[in-house]
C-alpha cells in the first residue's frame, strides 16, 4: 500500500461520489482563480464585493445547493458540505456568505414559506440576483432567542414590525430579510423586503474577526407588511432552530477547510524555513505539532463526513449537529492557534492565512450556537437533564 497523502491522510476524499468530487474541484478552481488572491485585501479593508460574489457563487450552483426545485441544484448533503469545506479553506467569511444565503434565508423560505414566497424569492436567490439575510439575534437576546423583543402586531390585515436585530450577516446588502418576531401567537417568521419603509441596516464596524464578511444591525421601525409576508404555518422557536441546524451542518464541514489551510501553511512553512542549520520541520517539537494538526484535521474531516452521510440517509438528529459543531470548531481553533505559533512572526501576518483563520474561528465558535450551548445540548442528550437555565 502507498504512503498516506499528507494532504488527505485518511484518504477521506476517495469515498466521495463523483458529483461530490466534481463540486470539490469546481469550488477549488473558483477559489484559486477568484478568491485566494483577493481575500486578504477584503479582510484588511472589511469590504466585500457582495454582488459579484453572489453572481459567482450562484453561477457555480452553491446558493441553496442542497435544496430541491426553484432553481436550486438539489445536491447531496455531503456535496454541500464539501463545498463549504473548500470555501472555508479560503475564509470563514466567504463560507458564511453562502451559509446565510442558502442555509438560513433560502432554507427558511423553502421550508416554511408559502408557495408565493418561494416563487418570488428562491429562483433569484439561487442565481445570486437577490441576497438574503436572517435576523434572529438581538442586542439583548443571543443564546436565549426566546427572550427576543422584536414584535409583530396586526393592523387590519397588515403586520407591523418593530425592534432591533444585531450581528446580522449580509444585512447591509440583503434584498430580503427573514425576520423572527414575537406575536400574540408565539414567535413567527416574516419575509421582509429591505426596501420596505422603516427598515434600515447599519454596518457593524470594528470587528477583529470575520472581517471578510458584512455584519449589520437591523432596525425595524414600524415596518408595515401585507398579511402574505408571514410564514403561514410555523410557530415558536422550532422555525428558526430548524434553519440554524442547516447552517451548523455547513459549519461543521466548513471548519475542516479552515483547519486544513492552517495545517498546510504550517507544513509548507516549516519545511522551507531553516533555523539552527536545518528545516524547522526537522525538529522534534515541530513534528509533535505537525502530528497533532494532522490528527485534528483528519478527525474533524471524518466526523463531518459521517454526519453528512447521516444527513443524506435521513437519520441526522440535531444532537449529531451539536456534536459536530462543537467538536470540529474546537479542533479547527486548536489547529489554527498551534499553526500560528509554528510560523513565528510571520504567523501574525496577513501575508499568511493562519491568523486570519484563527481570528475568524473565534466568531465561528460563538455564532450558530456557542460552544457552551452545544455542550449543554450534548449534556442533555446523554443525561436527560436540561441545564440551560
Ligand atoms: P450570549 O448569549 O450573551 O453569551 C455570552 C457567553 O455566555 C457565551 O460564552 C455563552 O455560551 C454563555 N452563556 C449564555 N447562556 C449560557 C448558559 N445558559 N449557560 C452557560 N453559558 C451561557 N445572528 C443572527 O441571527 N443572524 C446572523 O446572520 C448572525 N451573524 C453573526 C455574525 C457574526 C460575525 C457574529 C459574531 C455573530 C452573528 N450572529 C448572527 C449572532 C450569534 O448567533 C450570537 O452572537 C450567538 O448566538 C451568541 O449570542 P451572544 O453574542 O448574545 O452571546
Which short descriptors sum up this protein?
single chain, 389 residues, alpha+beta, 4-stranded antiparallel beta sheet, 3-stranded mixed beta sheet, 11 helices, binds flavin-adenine dinucleotide, Acyl-CoA_Oxase/DH_mid-dom
| Biggest sheet strand line-up | 2-3-7-6
Q: N-to-C SSE series?
A: HHHHHHEEEEEEEHEEHHHH
State the shape: globular
Distinct helical segment count: 11
The count of strands amounts to 9
Bound molecules: flavin-adenine dinucleotide
Structural class: alpha+beta
How many angstroms separate the termini? 53 Å
Helix fraction, binned, reads: 40-55%
The description of the largest β-sheet is: 4 strands, antiparallel
CA radius of gyration is 21 Å
Strand content: 5-15%
pLDDT averaged residue by residue: 98
Poorly predicted regions are none
Describe this structure in words.
- Its cofactor is FAD.
- Belongs to the acyl-CoA dehydrogenase family.
- Keywords: FAD, Flavoprotein, Oxidoreductase, Transit peptide.
- With 389 residues, the protein is an alpha+beta fold.
- The chain is built from eleven helices and nine strands.
- β4 (176-183) and β5 (186-193) form a beta hairpin.
- The longest helix is centred in the middle third of the chain and has 35 residues, at 238-272.
- Bound molecules: flavin-adenine dinucleotide.
- Flavin-adenine dinucleotide is lined by residues 100, 134-137, 142-143, 167-169, 210, 215, 363, 366-368, 370, 372-373, 388.
- Flavin-adenine dinucleotide (FAD) binds at residues 100, 134-137, 142-143, 167-169, 210, 215, 363, 366-368, 370, 372-373, 388.
Amino acid at each position: 500500500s502507498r504512503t498516506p497523502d499528507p494532504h488527505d491522510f485518511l484518504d477521506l476524499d476517495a469515498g466521495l461520489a463523483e458529483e461530490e468530487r466534481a463540486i470539490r474541484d469546481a469550488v477549488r478552481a473558483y477559489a484559486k482563480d477568484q478568491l485566494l488572491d483577493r481575500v486578504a485585501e477584503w479582510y484588511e479593508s472589511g469590504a466585500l464585493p457582495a454582488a459579484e460574489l453572489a453572481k459567482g457563487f450562484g453561477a457555480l450552483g452553491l446558493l441553496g445547493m442542497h435544496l430541491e426545485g426553484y432553481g436550486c441544484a438539489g445536491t447531496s448533503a455531503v456535496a454541500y458540505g464539501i463545498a463549504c469545506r473548500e470555501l472555508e479553506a479560503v475564509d470563514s467569511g466567504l463560507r458564511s456568505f453562502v451559509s446565510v444565503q442558502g442555509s438560513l434565508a433560502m432554507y427558511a423560505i423553502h421550508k416554511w414559506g408559502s408557495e408565493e414566497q418561494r416563487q418570488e424569492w428562491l429562483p433569484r436567490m439561487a442565481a445570486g440576483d437577490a441576497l438574503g439575510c436572517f435576523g434572529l439575534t438581538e442586542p439583548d437576546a443571543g443564546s436565549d432567542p426566546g427572550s427576543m423583543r422584536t414584535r409583530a402586531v396586526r393592523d387590519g390585515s397588515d403586520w407591523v414590525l418593530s425592534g432591533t436585530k444585531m450581528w446580522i450577516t449580509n444585512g447591509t446588502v440583503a434584498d430580503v430579510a427573514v425576520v423572527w418576531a414575537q406575536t400574540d401567537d408565539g414567535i413567527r417568521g416574516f419575509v421582509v423586503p429591505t426596501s420596505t419603509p422603516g427598515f434600515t441596516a447599519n454596518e457593524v464596524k470594528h470587528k477583529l474577526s470575520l472581517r471578510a464578511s458584512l455584519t449589520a444591525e437591523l432596525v425595524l421601525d414600524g415596518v408595515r407588511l401585507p398579511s402574505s409576508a408571514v410564514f403561514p404555518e410555523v410557530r415558536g422557536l422550532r422555525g428558526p432552530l430548524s434553519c440554524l441546524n442547516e447552517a451548523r451542518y455547513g459549519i461543521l464541514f466548513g471548519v475542516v477547510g479552515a483547519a486544513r489551510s492552517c495545517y498546510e501553511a504550517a507544513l509548507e512553512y516549516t519545511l522551507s524555513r531553516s533555523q539552527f542549520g536545518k528545516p524547522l520541520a526537522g525538529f522534534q517539537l515541530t513534528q509533535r505539532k505537525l502530528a497533532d494538526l494532522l490528527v485534528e484535521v483528519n478527525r474533524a474531516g471524518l466526523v463531518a463526513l459521517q454526519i453528512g452521510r447521516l444527513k443524506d440517509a435521513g437519520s441526522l438528529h440535531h444532537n449529531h449537529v451539536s456534536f459536530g459543531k462543537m467538536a470540529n470548531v474546537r479542533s479547527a481553533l486548536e489547529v489554527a492557534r498551534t499553526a500560528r505559533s509554528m510560523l513565528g512572526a510571520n504567523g501574525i501576518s496577513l501575508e499568511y492565512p493562519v491568523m486570519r483563520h484563527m481570528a475568524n474561528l473565534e466568531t465561528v465558535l460563538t455564532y450558530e450556537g456557542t460552544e457552551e450551548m452545544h455542550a449543554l445540548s450534548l449534556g442533555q442528550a446523554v443525561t436527560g437533564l436540561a441545564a440551560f437555565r
